[in-house]
């Protein structure tokens, strides 16, 4: 009951229906207040009170007080003012509206067609008596001012059938709306204790990191996607520290430490020396039994070496 439209829109459609129901009830309470003032004006005449009585006047005054009280309470609910005892205020509002409706139905019972005819007959009989006695009173002056049947019927109609029409037109929708209002209020889980504006619902798409880390058993890929989305953000937020300008100074502990030896073998960039062509040929390698050794190649090489040596020692 004590929630704003912005708070009710975040919920289901029942919250919006509740707001419009409160708005219509406030409008009907104002209309009832205006109709009750009209009833007070037309039934407060001395001629009417002396002939018919002041019953309708008293009922109109009670309706005016109850309708304005109900309007103030429903206006508090529309504005959304936080106050203590919300359940008690809700109960008081319902009681006031129920009593207001009861008074309205009593007024309807006293302004029917039969009551109109009986009041008209009472006024006609009273005027006949006043005219026979020839008393100079306000009632006699009224009878002289309204000598015709039509004028007396109009006078009675404004105080009976007209009141019936206006109160019937406001009592029926008020009864329907108050029943719907009670149902909609109890459909709201936090109608009397609304959540604070700082609290946010647990939504996977919210900014709450705890809400994003909740695993969804039906959609396991959503958790991995959230983790991947969070990783670049955390890296971007970190400031890149520049490299130190000066190397760290050597300390006593560092000086005592022996330099670490490079365990990696040194790479020998020198090329192996060229083999002498006159050197003995390498020994024959063992070949698999399936293949025959190529001995003719080695014999040919030996013959070439021998001829070269003989050429060198030939005298000129």
UniProtKB/TrEMBL annotation:
Biased composition (Low complexity): 248-257
Annotated TM spans: 20-41, 47-76, 88-108, 166-187
Region (Disordered): 195-316
Acidic residues composition-biased segments: 289-316
Biased composition (Polar residues): 197-213, 221-238, 266-279
UniProt keyword annotations, A-Z: Membrane, Transmembrane, Transmembrane helix
Protein name: Uncharacterized protein
